[in-house]
Design brief:
Number of strands: 8
Structural class: alpha+beta
InterPro entries: GAF-like_dom_sf, HTH_MetabolicPath_Reg, Tscrpt_reg_IclR_C, Tscrpt_reg_IclR_N, WH-like_DNA-bd_sf, WH_DNA-bd_sf
CATH superfamily of the largest domain: GAF domain
Radius of gyration: 22 Å
Pfam families: HTH_IclR (PF09339), IclR_C (PF01614)
Strand content: 15-25%
Largest sheet: 6 strands, antiparallel
Keywords: DNA-binding, Transcription, Transcription regulation
Strand order of the largest sheet: 5-4-3-8-7-6
Distance between the termini: 87 Å
Protein name: Transcriptional regulator, IclR family
Helix content: 40-55%
CATH class of the largest domain: Alpha Beta
Number of domains: 2
Organism: uncultured Pleomorphomonas sp
């Protein structure tokens, strides 16, 4: 005699909900691979009608999982998808590799340490580490930060090719956040030249009044900049020598993480030219 099945019997409604959820997730996965796509491309890719795809995309958009550019008609993955997936991101190799170096950097400097990546035209903190020092960070994980007004944003775009850099920065005006923010595009590009020459970047109250940050790039095996590592301090506590010391600490930590990701730098040492950052 066959044992009775446990649990509730699936109804037609259950099957319909499961199919709808599966299609919605398939659309999200397709967008993750394509980065941007039209309604017809998404519908074809998932094998559903444009009407069904439009309805599902509208639901995902309402949840913040999908963005839609009204001018181009292109869909892309929304920021909510990143926030939901942040727990998975933390478990990935970058986080696991970076955390010991972040902890050591925080203990050496007694300052908060941030790990950030680029998402389109923004930088996003995916991990933070603080010690018992007096500095405390108020920026939450997953928050979008401007690339042109943060040290971590600068190192994330400084090594991009011209076309990729233009796309990351956009063609609109550079937003001003404080009186120290660089809004002139030519001056900003010159700042990136200095970042490449030095191997690190600073943010002297450009995003928040009273906050000073130093950041360095993290590279993968191919040499591509995949993340940025930064420390934050009160601007009133940072002088020329302190900047030099912070830069050495941050760059060493970022290089350590890069090495664990397979990157081998051609230079064993780093030459710091502070004149390009300090008046």
């Amino acid at each position: 005699m066959t044992a009775p099945r446990r649990g509730r019997t699936r109804t037609r409604e259950d099957v319909g909900v499961t199919r709808t959820l599966d299609r919605g997730l398939a659309l999200l996965e397709l967008l993750g691979d394509a980065r941007q796509a039209t309604l017809s491309q998404l519908a074809r890719g998932v094998g559903i009608s444009p009407t069904t795809a439009s309805r599902l995309l509208e639901t995902l958009k309402g949840r913040g999982l999908v963005d839609h550019d009204e001018e181009t008609g292109l869909f892309s993955v929304g920021m909510k998808a990143f926030v939901i997936g942040s727990s998975a991101v933390r478990a990935r190799r970058l986080d696991r590799v970076a955390l010991p170096s972040m902890r050591a950097l925080a203990e050496d400097t007694r300052l908060p340490v941030n790990l950030g990546v680029r998402d389109g035209q923004s930088a996003i903190y995916i991990e933070q580490f603080e010690t018992g020092g007096t500095m405390r960070l108020l920026l939450r994980l997953g928050r979008q930060l401007p690339l042109h007004a943060t040290a971590i944003g600068k190192v994330l775009v400084a090594w991009l090719w011209d076309d990729a850099l233009a796309q990351a920065i956009g063609d609109g005006p550079l937003a001003s956040f404080t009186v120290h923010t660089t809004t002139d595009r030519d001056i900003f590009l010159a700042d990136l030249d200095a970042v490449r020459a030095n191997g690190w970047a600073t943010d002297d109250q450009e995003y928040e009044e009273g906050l000073f940050c130093v950041a360095a790039p993290i590279r993968d095996r191919s040499g591509e900049v995949v993340a940025g590592l930064s420390v934050s301090s009160l601007a009133s506590r940072v002088g020329d020598e302190a900047i030099r010391e912070l830069a050495r600490h941050v760059t060493a930590a970022a290089s350590e993480v890069s090495g664990k990701l397979g990157w081998q730098s051609a230079n064993s040492g780093l030459d710091f030219e502070l004149d390009q950052f300090i008046d």
